[in-house]
């Protein structure tokens, strides 16, 4: 009977201990090491050759403006090889692309995407020193990094574009179809990604 009494106390003690502790929180346990992703700020530098694949109207996303779709390929820090895709509104009267509708991303060879925005910008006819003689217009705009997927999840950053447009041939002017882009700035992203 003493064995039955001790066994009954052990069973009661077991159930009481499980119910009295409440919810277990790993962060309260000093043996549990919580691993947060450390963010680091690094240089950001990409080079892209691209082309405009559509230019026209879009009454839903760009009312009263034109819409441009652009694709490209290139290389860059944190990417190796990359592809790019942009859709944005443009005012054909002054070359501005006001803040509003824009899809902008760079995709690395693993499928990780980095999202970017250009708050306000403008295509300017002509060229500046250092651009080739065939450049017919250029844009030097501020950009911001707004997140991404995979290794770019939670990324932030900023920088400036140094880009120009050029026609495939003389008949392409004043609507060039080819582009060269050089974006430089900083990116804050998860360390080791």
Structure description:
Helix content is 10%, strand content 50%. It is built from one helix and 13 strands; from the N terminus they run αβββββββββββββ. The strands form two sheets. It has an eight-stranded antiparallel barrel. It has a two-stranded antiparallel sheet with strand order 4-7. A hairpin with a 7-residue loop joins strand 10 and strand 11. The N and C termini lie far apart (64 Å). About 4% of the residues have low confidence.
Keywords:
mainly beta; 1 helix; 50% strand
State the low-pLDDT regions, or none: 5-11
> Rounded to an integer, what's the Rg over CA atoms?
27 Å
| Residues in helices, as a percent range | under 10%
> What is the makeup of the main sheet?
8 strands, antiparallel, barrel
Beta-strand share of residues: over 45%
Main structural class:
mainly beta
DSSP E strands, number: 13
Which strands sit side by side, in order, in the main sheet? 1-2-3-5-6-10-11-13
N-end to C-end Cα span? 64 Å
Mean pLDDT: 82
Structure annotation, total helices: 1
Run of helices and strands: HEEEEEEEEEEEEE
Q: What is the approximate shape?
A: globular
